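Hey,
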Amino acid sequence: MRKAVLLCSLGLIGLLAAPLGAQGQGQNRSEDVRPDGKGDRTRYVPPRGGNVGAAPTGYGISYHGGAVLDTVSGSPTKLYFIWYGNWSGLDSTAAGILNNFAANIGASPYFNINTTYANGSSAPVVNQAAFGGSVTDNYSLGTSLSDSDIQTIVAAHAGHDLPLDTNAIYFVLTTPDVGEVTGFCSRYCGWHTSGFVNGADIKYSFVGDPLACPGACEWQSVGPNGSGGGDGMASVVAHEFEEAVSDPDLNAWYDSAGNENADKCAWTFGATYNASNGALANMKLGALDYLIQQNWVNAPPSGFCALSYASVPPPPAPSTPSLSVISTSEIDLSWTEPAGSNQTGFNILRCQGTCTPTVTVAQVGATATGYHDTSLAAATTYTYIVQAYNSGGSANSGTASAATLTPPPPTAPGAPTLTVV
């Protein structure tokens, strides 16, 4: 969620750009705002504006041709933690909370949401992740850090006391006495980017301890695992990890306003429950409860925020619709569905003329077998497709065309009555 400035200064990002064509979706979308990597806004910063460019090529989010991590089964993306500052003295519980998160996020229903994203070869993200380990850094660059300082800290450890790993995210986690001068606590709670580090394209992230600004960067002062900042950090780490996998170089998945997947759901938590200490939580990972923000599911009909995603097979295609012309402005559609259909609903696609419909003009429910189309132009041919959809995909019927009735000619008036005056 933050990268534009670093791209200019480094000039070496994007070395892993994938080929075009993820899931058959176009990437020439120069009108879209590119992410700056700092979309993990504080609670006080309003969300970025709605989509201002072209219609999305995904489901509320678009693919732009860049690399995507974690697409090879058996080769999970790793999380490495660099604990910067005096953690034993300022927030001693954070390590246990975040280490447990990193060890259990892979194969979770939550991280399964990222399987709705794919690279340019249509290879989807695999629901896998692994905790690669951690090191400590005792204020090597002081307590006031810049963006470039974060990269310097990563470079001091990646390839030295941590492996140099291009299929990983390095998290620089800072104690509450450490500031990030470009906007921690005022603009953002964390960010991610990539850079050329020690000869490799390395992905990394900054996440600060919200005890520095609890009203801005954590939802509740006491989390499900205690009063420290680790609970609040877990939600930010989740946010950055989701985005670093689906958009590692800030040129893959984002919407036209520059929001990456987790940005679209920031500060929304879905259904919650009370942990044993009374704090709100919404998921259990390993032995611990967490309150983690939702993530954007890139699935039909239009994408949505959720805490989990259950992969289901796409529905079978409905029959080609039968069309009945009713009047000069009405056509009725009817169709059948195969036995055992699992659609969530049907989209009605229509175009004018003998053509291939691409525009949805109506949605009907899962049990519908017909649709009454109105307000059509007289004596005009319309072509229809009925599209079944669910969270696993969609399937189209064949096309069917029909023309509305031609209006009858006007009735001739009667013979005029003549009056001689």
